[in-house]
TrEMBL record:
Residues 86-187 form the CoA-binding domain. The gene is rex. It holds the Pfam family CoA_binding. Its main location: cytoplasm. The keyword Transcription regulation applies. NAD(+) binds at G97, A98, G99, N100, L101, G102. This is Redox-sensing transcriptional repressor Rex. Homodimer. Keywords: Cytoplasm, DNA-binding, NAD, Repressor, Transcription, Transcription regulation. HAMAP family: Rex. Modulates transcription in response to changes in cellular NADH/NAD(+) redox state.
Length: 226
């Protein structure tokens, strides 16, 4: 779904706003699927769990201000947010690591509808290379650089053990990949021109455990006070 529309000029959108745009997009796409043509800022804010004033300010960075008494045109707002996120063209993704996590990512069907094409799945284990996963044949990491060039890979996903992650990242960078999603439990060292997003599932679980513990402590105190 490549578009001939040129990318918007950098308008200095705050990082916090950028982080909320995918949340807005997911809610808007759900509205589109339900056939809802317009939505007020208050209702969209309630759907996304964001303060309505903050939401209006976020969307104003995109040049979208809604219409008084009508709200936002959902379909057009989907386009605006998608354009800002760079989703009006397809992005090719290569996943390194064909273990349980890598296979789960390759099998996830939601990437295609959001502008991402899983172009390759690679692994260093000869027992895994050659297996079929989600319509892909697992290839050996020895040809990582060739795959990046041949497939036009823009985003590299690292789903390897921690010990292998930095080496894989270095190879991605040398091959010209400047966007990396890292699932390995390690901090990667990259040049300032490379963007890395880290997803640490164990940290997320620990944060949830913290909140669960706080709720449990509050319940115990409530019982004691009662």
């Amino acid at each position: 779904m490549t578009s001939s529309t040129p990318p918007p000029k950098d308008r200095g959108i705050p990082e916090a706003t950028v982080a909320r745009l995918p949340v807005y997009l997911r809610a808007l796409q759900s509205l589109t699927e339900r056939g809802i043509p317009t939505i007020s800022s208050e209702d969209l804010a309630a759907t996304t769990g964001v303060n309505s004033a903050k939401l209006r300010k976020d969307l104003s960075h995109l040049g979208s201000y809604g219409t008084r008494g009508v709200g936002y045109d959902v379909e057009y707002l989907v386009y605006q947010v998608s354009r800002e996120l760079g989703l009006t063209q397809d992005w090719c993704v290569a996943i390194i690591g064909a273990g349980n996590l890598g296979r789960a990512l390759a099998n996830y069907g939601g990437f295609g509808s959001r502008g991402f094409r899983i172009a390759a799945l690679l692994d260093a284990d000869p027992d895994v290379v050659g297996l079929g996963v989600a319509g892909l044949t697992v290839r050996h990491t020895d040809i990582l650089e060739d795959v990046v060039v041949d497939e036009g890979v823009s985003i590299g996903v690292i789903a390897t053990p921690a010990a292998a992650a930095q080496g894989v990242c270095d190879r991605f960078v040398r091959a010209g990949v400047t966007s990396v999603l890292n699932f390995a439990p390690v901090v990667l060292n990259v040049p300032p021109t490379v963007d890395v997003r880290k997803v640490d599932l164990s940290i997320e679980l620990q944060i949830l455990a913290f909140h669960a513990q706080r709720k449990a402590d509050g319940n115990r105190l409530g019982l004691l006070d009662g």
